[in-house]
Amino acid sequence: MLKPNAVKKRVTEITPQFLRDIGADALLLDVDNTLSTHHGTELLEGLPQWIDGMKAAGVPLLLLSNSKEKRVKPFAKKIGLPYISLGLKPLPNGFFKAAKRLKIKKRRLALAGDQIFTDVLGAKLAGVKVILLEPIQPETKWSFKVRRLLEKGLRKKYKTCRKVLK
Question: Widest CA span of the chain, in angstroms?
């Protein structure tokens, strides 16, 4: 339940062909430490161009974040994507809402996110594929430090594989 379908360094490494290779037609995106630093407003380098390329290729994108709407809405507006805030990952409800909003079967969805115990576990519980990314920047809050420490062994195990994990 904690093993991602694939591992990449940054979201911008994901291509439409890669999504097809893992059996996904649409991509859900975590926000914090995936598209920007935790609670940051600066976009990941190359993100606008990547979004444009994914849209041009016909890949539906949707933000799925555990953050409140006051954080997610302005960010979503800035990059021109629909969103679901308070996704409550790892609970599967946010994934179900996303599938319904995109009008796509859960098994044809993938999520790109940076946390094993929220993003990976949530996607697995919902029957959604998941691409684990490296966090853009280390968080300073103690709760994140504890989670990252717990993730360390799993990340080391998965780091050697930059392609689809079986």
Answer: 40
Q: Whose structure tokens read 């994914």? A: 54
Residue 107: how many CA atoms within 13 Å on its side-chain side?
0
Sign of the CA dihedral with 108 first, then 155, 122, and 125 last: positive
Hey, which residues does 131 pair with through a beta bridge? 6, 112
Residue ranges and CATH numbers for the domains of the chain are 6-159 (3.40.50.1000)
Q: How far apart are CA 138 and CA 140, in angstroms?
A: 7
Q: What is the pLDDT of residues 129-154, one digit of tens each?
A: 999 998 986 666 656 666 666 677 67
Cβ-based neighbours of 136, under 8 Å, separated by 6 or more: 10, 33, 34, 36, 37, 44, 114
Per-residue pLDDT tens over the stretch 81-123: 999 999 999 999 999 999 999 999 999 999 999 999 999 999 9
Q: Quick check: helix, strand or coil at residue 17?
A: helix
Cis before residue 138, ω within 30 degrees of 0? no
Query: Of 22, 1, 4, which is closest to residue 157 (Cα–Cα)?
Result: 4
